[in-house]
Amino acid sequence: MRDERHEASRSVRRHERRRRRARTRRRVLIGGGLVIALVATIALATGMHLTGNISRVDIASGSNERPEDIDGDLNILVIGSDTREGIGTNEYGTGTAEGGARSDTNLLLHISADRESAYVISIPRDSMTRAPTDCDDPASTVVNGEVRRWNDNFNRGGPACVVKTLEGLTGIFVDHVAVVDFNGFQSMVDGLGGVTVCLPKAVHDEDAQIDLEAGKQRLDGHEALGYVRMRKSLGDGSDLQRIERQQAFMSSMAQEATRTSLLLRPDRLYSFLDAATKSMTADEDLGLKRMLSIATSVKDLGMDELVFVTVPNEPYPANTNRVQWRQPAADALWTAVRNDTALPGHEKDGKKDAEPTLTVAPSQIHVEVRNDTPSPGLAAQEARSLAAQGFDTAVVYDPPTDETEGVTVTHAKGEAAAARTAAAAYEGAKLKVDEELPVGTVQVSLGRGAPNAREVPNREGSQPLPEATVQAPPAPTQVKTRTADQDICG
Description:
By secondary structure, this protein is of the alpha/beta class. The protein folds into three domains: 52 residues; 284 residues, Aminopeptidase (3-Layer(aba) Sandwich); 125 residues, no CATH class. About 7% of the residues have low confidence. The longest helix is centred in the N-terminal third of the chain and has 52 residues. The strands form six sheets. An eight-stranded mixed beta sheet has the order 1-12-7-2-3-4-13-21, with helices on both faces. It has a five-stranded mixed beta sheet with strand order 17-16-20-18-19, covered by helices on one side.
């Protein structure tokens, strides 16, 4: 009987334990569901909040026809507005002479369709270009418009006017626009925890309210705004030099975001996005979801594949304080954007053929070096670099025509093997046959964009190559670039 009572008691206890465990599981499930619901609600509210921060604008306003939208690649126009509202200081003035804001900075971000490269093109604010006389009138276009300073387009008709002018001049389709003002820039830098810059000398600028020592300095948002805007305290005071400084600063921002793994830190990412969106005006399609989609698509892009470039330019004849786009280099740049190809002069090699075996020693080759550029001393310098490797060299002092690009190695018929040895000293050198050239002589012609000599694989002697102090001027279609991974002090 006692065993039966004991067994019954054990059965009651087991039943009670099962009931308690079931209640606990229900509580856990209910609690887990609440947590998931809470997280989802917070994420939704955060997304709605950040998206709600952004002001909206119709970037197609005033346009009847727009360029073709090439599938896959992205062109995002980023405009820095010089409005002073909300920055808590009058140190940059209280407005513009015309009233309203102007576009202090104009950047076109091009992201390739394969997401393996991106470049940021700075458009000088003082560029004199054709523009629609009335940006709100669909019949008013670049073709029948007026010539005016680029900086005035934003003041005349806002982001839509800038887009209409850019598309009309270049044939590029602008997918998205983001306008960020002074306050937004300051807050974004603070959201990163500051950004490091490198100063060649100490800077004391009362207008920008910054006082910094030479060398590397960590700037907060307020100091950073003064740094990227000041003109008179560093360099020659030109807007072009300020653009170079801004590009270096953007490189440093990209390095900072990578170093701190910004995308993997929800707290810092939220702070950065909140700061960015509060002072942002964008097109209707550029919401938080679209921004995150774009950011995710380029997450594997290396810093060496983010390239900064300025539209090639030259002084504007009617007013040398202004610039005009230099042709044909500017056209070549816009063509690269339209066609989603590499920047002119920076094309990547595809699959390379095996390097040819060099069968003729340098000492068996007489090389005549000719300079076809305006850079004095280039031929003599390159002749010394070749002589240091065993070539028998001479300099040809023909007047330069300034009509060639790169390096051309000319040789007599049947002398291709000797020419290949000489050509190995210059990346991208082209071979050319001249049946009237004496056997045993190779001519090296240096044109615009020619690189300096490098060591050939079968060089003779161990004497180091002399330092190259003379550079060939860039080819007409080449553009000067800076990659985001460059040393900020470089």
